[in-house]
Amino acid sequence: MSDFVFATAQYESGDWDSAPLLPANIIDTIARYTSIDVAPTGVIVPLSSPALFRYPLVYLTGHLPVRFTSGERDNLRAYAERGGLLFVDDHNHDVDGTFHKTATEELTRVYGALHPVPNTHPLYRTFFHFDDGPPTTSHELNGWGDNLVHKTLSGVERQGRLTLLYSNKDYSSEWNYHPDNKRFLSVDNTKFAVNLVVYALTR
Amino acid sequence: MLLLAVALWRAIREQPAGAETRRARASALARTLDDATRGDRIGALDVAVDAMPSPVERDWLAALRRAGVAVRWSGAVPTLALTAERVREPAAPLRLLLAADTGAVSLSDSAGTLDTLRASAGGVMLEAPEVVGAVRARQGSFAATAAPPSPTDRRAVLVLGRASWESRFVLAALSEAGWEVRARLPAAPGVAVTDPGLLPIDTARYDAVVLLDSTAADLAPAIARFVAAGGGVVAAGSATTLETLRAVVPARAGVRRPGRILLDGDSTTRADLPLRPLTSLRADAIALERQSAGIAAAARRAGSGRALSVGYDESWRWRMLGGASGPAAHRAWWSRTVGLVASDRDVARHDGSGDAAPTAALVSTLGPPAPPAARATTGDGDPLPLALLIALAVALLAEIASRRFRGAR
Amino acid sequence: MTARERVVALRRTLTAVLLVRAGAFGAAAVLAGVVVARALALPWPFAALPALAGAVVALTLGARVRPARSLERVALWVEERHPALRYALVTAATRGSLHDAIERQALQEPWWDEERRRLVRALAVPLTALAAAFLLALWHPVLLTRGTASTRDATRSGPTGASEGVDPLASIRVVVTPPAYAGRAVTTSDDPTSVDALVGSSILVSGVGDAARVAATLDSARRGVAPRDGRWSTSVVMPSRPSLLRLRSVAGRERLVVLAPIVDAAPVVTLLLPARDTVVRAAGGSLLLRAALRDDIGLRDAAFEIIVSSGQEENFTYRSATLARAALGGRQEGGLEVRLALDSLGLKPGDVLQMRAVAHDANTVTGPGLGSSETRALRVARAGEYDSVSVDPAPPGEPEGQVLSQRMLVTLTEALDKRRPGLARRTLISESQRIAADQARLRKRVGDVVFQRIGGEPLSEESTFGTPVGKLTPEELLARAQAATKSSAGETMDAEGDETPILAVNKPLLEAFNAMWDAGRALELGETRQALPPMRRALAAIERARQAERIYLRGRPSAVVVDVAHARLAGKDKGIASQREPRPVVDLAQRRRAGSFARATALLARDPDAAADTLLVMRVGALEDAPALAAVLDDAARTIRRGDAGAIALAWTRVRRALGGVPIARGSLPAWSGAP
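^ Those are the sequences you sent over. The predicted structure of the assembly is below.
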């Protein structure tokens, strides 16, 4: 069995599958830079399913409003208590958009208030060093969304480790391409995902 | 006047030394011991042990015996021995080990009753989170007491394993159980997430080392020396097959057997985990846990330390998929497992309090019990002086009353 | 007066003096005994002994009155001290004035004055004893303490002067006024160990005595104490976290009161209609929305919220609105209903309408709590979803791979065909069949792309169609697939479960599928030259399929399988070893609480009030993370304060169980020290 399986959260209310190529891209990145035993394909796991607990790191994204069912909410609470880490990315990169507003409302109900993750957080030094905090994406200033560069991510910590990480930076767009196309990039823009996974596996 | 004369004669009459054989019950021994010590009339002392004599009384009897008094004891004394030790974990709950005959034994401390147990196979064990003051095990009128050692601060635990869910959740479990945890977790060749100042691995800094796979092969010789010096090691998975630790670990992990397939709503328990049954068990190893697929945990003494092999694979699934109680159960198991091999640092109380093995101490001090002796000629104490005193008091009161009544008229 | 009359008078005086002596001695004995018992804090049976002793003394001395009732005895008593009377007084007293000579002799000296003075002097000692006992009682303040304070309270008061008066903390009263929005009644309790009330409640604590002699702190913050209606009082507001109110008198006495906040829960909102999510072809008509609302205190208002999302892929727009807002006037239960005209929303194909109900409670202290229901979604299907069997395109990875593979097979076959004259027949057949096997595998992969279903198996040759598929015209293949999936245009596509059927058809891929069939049959027979033309046709067909409309599987993105072994450590950049931050060592609350419990146990015998206070301090910490423990701690503290010795042992056991759980017994001794 592989140590690490990339899991995408499927939730009832929105377009959870808006970045279908992201899992393969991140798996490829993990394999390229680390010796972590990673499964070659990702999985899709419903948020309300008991299977959620098989994947202590889960990725969630979308464009549409997010409204958790009570089953999804209860599952997420238990998931956080047991040590799971949920990574949420606003595929709209729009703080005035309904994904951001509704997702943060739902996440606050489950996890409590979100706080900015300081750019000195260990997450930014776990494998590669990101001295300026979360790397900027090429989509943040593409004219859509809020057209802002978000300097920090947000999150919730429990007993000194992140249990929720929330991004407005649209990594879903940034990383949503076939891994074979990495060869066309001068700089691999997925390296921050390595930090995220290594952080999850070591903290 | 007659009564006073009798009392006076008795007081001045001389008794021959050692002529008296005194019988006493252990529950009321104090006066007899005093009499036997202060005078020389008592030449023999028969003690009916109806309750456990205190350590002071036992020593006193032994001293009388050495001084020439023939001390014999008799009675049906139950087997009773109690010891209190601390579990070697940060929370340091108490473990009370009781050796007793069949029958109910009541365990209590200063705060009240802990439990009432029935020993089988000669002994019984009770784990209590904490006790107040000394612990007493009582069976009828016999009791053993033990003073629990004070909890001592544990040293750190070193966890070595590659970056994986297993490493991450073992770290979490031990931290949450109160252990100070340090780790080295390789994520890529030459790249590891490491605590600063990890080395040296010695008993002054660590209580135990946990090896989750073979990534710690470079540290295996140091770990072997650490165990020989009194430290503990828990080895799981491929760590059990490291060449340098072959002489240390009690067993090797075998071929992996998959865990139970879970249906929706099922919760994982330890028995459902994938298992690498332990093989090549050393002759001095003790199997601690068994599952249907084979031995899941085994331990042995290695030098001055302890080593434990674990066959469970992916124990993190127990935490995540074990329902609401999963995290606590996973944490408790890992903390207990490390505690089984952790260095023994507890400081036992030696302040003279406690009487942990009173039956053994009685036999050791005074020898085995004797058949009950014939009734002594002078019996248990001399009631005549008391009778004389009462008679005198009554007579005096009667005289006073008589005078008063005569005077009032 | 005659002698007899004088003796009678003296008898009266004697009787009175004896009674006064008896009473005075008895009272002095009682007073002294009580003072001594209180000062030594003796339990009540011993404290009652002085009263008994005083009664005995009084009765014993009072019994002397009986003989004094006899005139003869009184006269003899006088004769004893006046021998000159020579029993004349006795004769005169008992027989009257029979003879003047006896009468004169009986009265020859004024013995009556002297005896009267003697009797008065006899009162000095008992009256002095009584006065001394009274002064002793006045000096010791215990006897002047009012209320039901125990002797233990007296010993905890510390040194005091005679002017201290009432212990201001002997009894306290707590008046709780809930916040106005809660609409609850004011409650009063006497001598509570804990006050449970809503956050924001006003709590007035008062007692009898001088306000200047009492100090109050709430979690180490000083609170003012003021006189009010002849009592001292202090007022606090129930905080949002458990807190400890300490009251301390200048005499050194301390009382603790735990403030346990009750948090106003958010409203519970249940969306009754619509009952489930829906997909429609066209959104028209009206939709009934209905919700049920409930709150523990009172509801302020409620409404429905809707969000309409329009757009696809990266372009979305949103509209939101609030409907049917209603004020609920503080009711604990309510309902909400509205009919939503879908026409007014102008929903277009692809739009998603999300609906939920929200309610606020009337909490004006910590802010209104917000409760919301589940969200229901109504989606309008896009045009084209029902009119063709073509669905969202799939990623183009597969055809690209297949082109490379088919091109390689063509190259291999061409090479084999060139070598054919020099090869033995058996070798030719063997190598040709190897290529045929590859061709068959590639053909199966093309078939998978064509016939894939969500969550189902790809096409197998022997399969769901009943007969081996073989070579079919595209129309025949389409008809077969459609029959297998049982889908038809016009049905509402309700995306539930894994079995939603989708059919992907791409004509060029079907042509390639059939051409590969022909090529495979030829290669099986070793006919390389006959195999080449269909193989080239298949290659051309796949090339066309790449440029055709792409096929996506709706609802589930296709899984890209990463070649992990190939990618392993291929990255140019290397990571940097990082330092792990040590986690703070977890504060084991259990150990702290066990230590506190041990201290409370040690205090229980010698200072029960201090033991109760220790439990109350533990309760404050436990209210947040161990409510069951907090409850038994409060119960144990109240049991101690009541002085119920019989119940204390049980309460103690409950605290111990709540602290660390039930001790675990195992029926034998373990083989390994420490093993369970």
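The mean pLDDT of chain C is 79. Chain C touches chain A through 44 residues (CB under 8 Å).

Shout if you want it in another format.
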